Amino acid sequence: MAVEAFHKDETLAMRRKLIGQSCRLFFSQDPVKIVRARGQYLYDENGMQYLDCISNVQHVGHCHPSITQAAAAQMDLLNANTRFLHDNIVQYANRLAATLPKKLGVFYFVNSGSEANDLALRLARQYTQHQDVIVLDHAYHGHLTSLIDISPYKFRKLEGQKEWVHVAPLPDTYHGIYREDHPNPAKAYADTVKSLIEEVHKKGSKISAFFAESLPSVGGQIIFPNGYCKKVSEYIHEAGGVYVADEIQTGFGRVGSHFWAFQLEGEDFCPDIVTMGKPMGNGHPIACVATTEAIAGAFTANGVEYFNTFGGNPVSCAIGLAVLDVIEKEDLRGNALRVGGHLKQLLCQLQTKHPIIGDVRGVGLFIGMELVKDRVSRKPATEEAAQLVRRLKEECIVMSTDGPWESVIKFKPPMCFSMEDADRVAVCIDQILIELESTRQKEDHEKS
Fold first, then answer.
1. E-assigned strands of 221-351?
2. Neighbours of 44 (CB within 10 A)
3. Contacts for 380 with CB less than 8 Å, ≥ 6 apart
């Protein structure tokens, strides 16, 4: 039986009545009603096509036929409680293990990135028998209570910082305390973590974990100075803690050159726990925690059974396997390298033309373009970034902002994003910035 479609205004009115208002929409003043999608394209109720530059959840592309076929076939056969023995979960774990360093060989499947990070926190505390956690400023690790507590991006707007949470400066060489002209920003930022550890020890507490996204996203599409993670890991291990790499937004080949963003740091760096999420199911809820035998053993030894009714169910794992197949067969890592490199180059060219573009940074299809009032003060151009996003929407390109001041235009599209898509986005940004600059000059002239 077909479900009757509502007019957009009726859908919006019902949403405002029935759905919690803190669940915000993109373009909340004039939201887009999307009724279907394919690849990197979204379609509204009138058939208008939008280029999607931000749906990293649909990792290999919206409604990829291989994924939907795998899901439907397995759902038609079996979807059961994960306590029943089944091939899919072990086959999928084995495939994931092949992408990771050997020591990360034990997996726990869950339903969301938030669940994965919550479990990682439990694993770290059980293994170390310590309580305190170090996180990066502006970090976001999930919406559960335990994760709000370790997400400065959220807790600063709520009840504030817990006594067991310690915030290290974000290693941002554009806005941070140590910038691109510093002789060794990696060590300088890592030493801020060392100082925090020493402060914690003076108070008689101990560190259980250092939690960080391998590439901070909400923080503004940040690329760590090379050597930072390795140095922090040394300090954390010396303190008896573990290093947790949050790969929920950056894993599964988004950086192109590697399968995992933490691998950008080099072969001699390996986290103790890796959390995965969004890209795994291409929109289906599946997530995972990978860790060592020692950490998993300590978790088992506590005598409390861990189970997750749906985490790693046959359908979820069939989808996960299909996603891995598509990444390989369609060379999406290679595509991320080629298209991401091309897009970054185009944005850098725009940077030479438009003074409002203060910085362009990123790897693969994880790119940030930061807008500033002027390049000397680097004052964030928050208003202008919002204007640019609104105008891009009018050109049927879906973008959004991120960063502490919402001044970073972020690019995290489906991995099938093409060279032509990159060209289109760059041309539109160029035209819109020309318009904005012309309007500003006119306003300045009228004031004078």
1. 242-246, 273-276, 287-291
2. 15
3. 370, 371, 372, 373, 403, 404, 405, 406, 407
pTM of the predicted protein model: 0.95
Helix (H) or strand (E) holding 199: helix 185-202
Which stretches of 252-313 are assigned E, i.e. beta strand?
273-276, 287-291
The answer to whether the CB of 96 falls within 8 A of the CB of 290 is yes
Burial of residue 34 (number of CB atoms within 10 Å: 0-12, 13-18, 19+): middle
Q: For each of the chain's 448 residues, which pLDDT tens digit applies?
A: 556 688 999 999 999 999 998 898 899 889 999 999 999 999 999 999 999 999 999 999 999 999 999 999 999 999 999 999 999 999 999 999 999 999 999 999 999 999 999 999 999 999 999 999 999 999 999 999 899 999 998 988 888 899 999 999 999 999 999 999 999 999 999 999 999 999 999 999 999 999 999 999 999 999 999 999 999 999 999 999 999 999 999 999 999 999 999 999 999 999 999 999 999 999 999 999 999 999 999 999 998 889 899 999 999 999 999 999 999 999 999 999 999 999 999 999 999 999 999 999 999 999 999 999 999 999 999 999 999 999 999 999 999 999 999 999 999 999 999 999 999 999 999 999 999 988 888 777 677 6
Q: Which two tokens stand for residue 55?
A: 């749906």
277 and 250 Cβ atoms separated by less than 8 Å: no
**DSSP, res 120:** H
3-state secondary structure of 391: helix
Residue 135's DSSP bridge partners are 167, 211
